[in-house]
Amino acid sequence: MADLQTAERQAQQLLDRFSITKAPVPVEDLAKSLGVEVRYQSLEPNVSGVLVRRGNKVVIGVNSNHHSNRQRFTIAHELGHYLLHPDSPTVFVDGALVHFRGEDLTGPSDLRELEANAFAGALLLPEATLRLDLRGQYIDAFDEVAVRGLSNRYQVSQQALTIRLMRLGLAGGMR
Ligand SMILES: [Zn+2]
Question: Which CATH number characterizes residue 23's domain?
Answer without folding.
Answer: 1.10.10.2910
